[in-house]
Amino acid sequence: MADTLLIDLFKQLGSIAVQLAKQEINLLVAVDEEVQKLQGKLGMIKAMLDDAEERHAVKRRTEKLWLEQLQNQYYVMDDILDTWNTARIRAEIEKEEGKPADTKAPAVVKKKVCSFVPSPSCCFNLPLRHDVGHMIRKLNEKLDMIVKDKATYGIDFNRQPEVVERPTTTSFVDVSHIIGRDIYRDDLLRNLLGVGSQEETNSYCVISLVGLGGIGKTTLAQLAYNHPDVQAHFQKRMWICVSDPFDQCKVAKAIINEVDPGHEHGPLNDIELQALV
């Protein structure tokens, strides 16, 4: 009974050993093909990384982390190919000089392994072929995980960026709700009404209100726009809401409509818009 169990156990172990040996031999034989595939993957990944850098559109943290993982594997691929190519060049040089290309593997082992493989080229540096084969297998597993992560986390670099439009503002302001803006309003009025003297009637003046969002720039502009002195000073006033992202044609058309609201303008190019403005 015990002998039968031992025999079955040894058969199973022998079968496992044969399978592992076949896997290792297949790994040695397929290294050249896997290296060629790796070179193609290296070029594709390099192109993806370059495209992402040129677009400068990667804002989501998941996309950045995914690209970092891909870039790390790109460096691993480059190191593997560099190791392989360096060994190939060294083997060719040693062959020309009459030296053995592989001094690490015993001659008996090399002879036995080569008898199983169809191509004599696989006998080139057996320990290196073994190491590179395992490194490529591990790398491919990592790349498969990265590809799955891309689908799992919904990473899509072809997705159009979300455009958040700025709320449209009007010139209306409820003065009863505004407190503590008199000094800034009067200072802005002095600039508006002081500029435009006789010697500057043909020049343009731009007064910019600069500051962080939410500090009251729009409210200050509304206070000045609706002030009686401004209404009396300027023959024509226009309130134009600038879009975000900025659209030059849209702003120009809004100005034209304010100046001549009764006239219908067809599609205009940039030069025609500039002439009208």
How would you summarize this macromolecular structure in one to three sentences?
The protein is built from ten helices and no strands. By secondary structure, the protein is mostly helical.
Can you tell me the residue ranges where pLDDT is under 50 for at least 5 consecutive residues?
107-122
Shape: rod-shaped
Radius of gyration: 37 Å
Question: What is the helix content?
Answer: 55-70%
Q: How many DSSP H or I helices?
A: 10
The secondary structure category is: mainly alpha
Number of domains: 3
| Percent of sequence in beta strands | under 5%
Order of helices and strands: HHHHHHHHHH
Question: What's the total count of β strands?
Answer: 0
**Main β-sheet description:** none
Distance between the termini: 104 Å
Mean pLDDT score, rounded?
74
